[in-house]
Amino acid sequence: MTSTGASTDKVASVEDAVKTYVKTGMTVLVGGFGRGGTPFTLLEYLADHSDAYRELTLVKNDASEPRLGLGPLFRAGMVRSLVSTHIGLNPEVIAMMNAGEIAVTLIPQGIFAEKIRAKGAGIPAFLTDIGMGTPIAEGRDTVVFEGRPYLLEAALGGDVSLLSADKADRMGNCWWRGSNRNMNVVMGMASPKVVVEAKDIVEVGELAPEAIHLPGICVDAVVRAEKRRHQTGEGA
Q: What Cα–Cα distance (Å) separates residue 145 from each residue in 10, 101, 128, 141, 152?
């Protein structure tokens, strides 16, 4: 988890938050499942300042679409590698992977989520039988437990997590509506630094304690989500 010090007001500008917590060469966990829960404002800022943020390793459930979310970062040549569960909606990433321009690691979605959850829980690795007896297991570490072989899956974390919440208070406590929660909550505990963009920023105390999905102790900065500029469309 993140140590945030004594400050209770973590609201910052997008520029200040990104400049403070994102650097070239970092591994960046990005929340979202398709469009739901994706931090478009933070990603658009990064894409707009592509010269300052290079050689990134991105960890996201999907590769977004060519002109949306992660798409502009790939187009700008900012990404060294991607760890994901699904890249089928972004043919440009598929082409880059096939051309050897970026490295892509594909992980089954449940394993992907558990690897990130394990990191936040302080678990270095776990055992699974998913992939045993298939090419996925070739060359991988295995462990025999109670007479059965399992793959050893290492926890997966990052240098910083970029998340999108439906509501956050000024202390960083976050709430998500429905499936927007997706990978955001586990990613909020899997990096030492966490930046959350919120559609609605409220005062401390307006979120009921039992409604908080990610506590403010895990969050370093809260920025206000802006209207999405990058769009999909013909030629995307």
A: 45, 39, 10, 13, 11
Distance between alpha carbon 197 and the CA centroid of its chain, in Å? 12
What are 228's two structure tokens?
């999405």
pLDDT in tens, 32-86: 999 999 999 999 999 999 999 999 999 999 999 999 999 999 999 999 999 999 9
Q: Count of CB atoms within 10 A of residue 38's CB?
A: 29
Q: Which two tokens stand for residue 227?
A: 């209207």
**Which tens digit of pLDDT belongs to each residue from 185-220?**
999 999 999 999 999 999 999 999 999 999 999 999
At the fourth CATH level, the homologous superfamily of domain 14-123+158-224 is Glutaconate Coenzyme A-transferase (3.40.1080.10)
Task: Give dist(CA 184, CA 140) in Å, integer.
Answer: 28
Q: Which residues pair with 195 in a beta bridge?
A: 162, 221
Provide the token pair at 40: 């478009």
51-72 CB burial, b ≥16 within 10 A, e <16: eebeebbbbbbbbbbbbbbbbb
Q: Are strands 174-175 and 193-202 parallel, antiparallel or unpaired?
A: unpaired
pLDDT at 2: 40
Q: How far is CA 109 from the centre of its chain?
A: 13
List the domain boundaries for the chain. 14-123+158-224
